[in-house]
Amino acid sequence: MAVGQNRKRPAPDSCTAITDSKPAPKLAKLSDSGAATAPGEEDMPAQQLERIAASSRTPFEKRVLSLLCQIPRGRVSTYGLLSAHLGSSPRAVGGALRRNPFAPLVPCHRVVAAGGALGGFKGQWPVDGEGITLDEKKKLLRAEGVRFDVKGTKVLGTPWGGFE
Hints:
WH-like_DNA-bd_sf; 29% helix; globular; mainly alpha; single chain; methyltransferase; transferase; MethylDNA_cys_MeTrfase_DNAb
């Protein structure tokens, strides 16, 4: 496939649904700025949980959105770590993040590709690591204290994987 060519992704209904048989994960509190604090400090406000629960998202997407709130401010996780915790695939997680209607309150910007590359954002996948949406993702991450390499294309540090 040529660089910049659109990739076809399966429609949400064609993906295997994961039921909500597991208990809801512990969620972080959202500050007025929309950034989640470290898990365990306080639960996410009931209003956000109600929005996620009442949304038209699939059960899998609701689990992904809830899990995002565990990623501490100033840290990132990877599509692979999220998918391993959910027993799913990284692409399925990416699809759920692409359809996140609650961003940045539910912080999908804290998920990066393996190796620290920024990955996609707002349903857009960059060409050669560039793009307006990636600038927005970088701005959100930098505001939270995430560090980047000299080129500004990769996140430094170990990805967070302490999901409950």
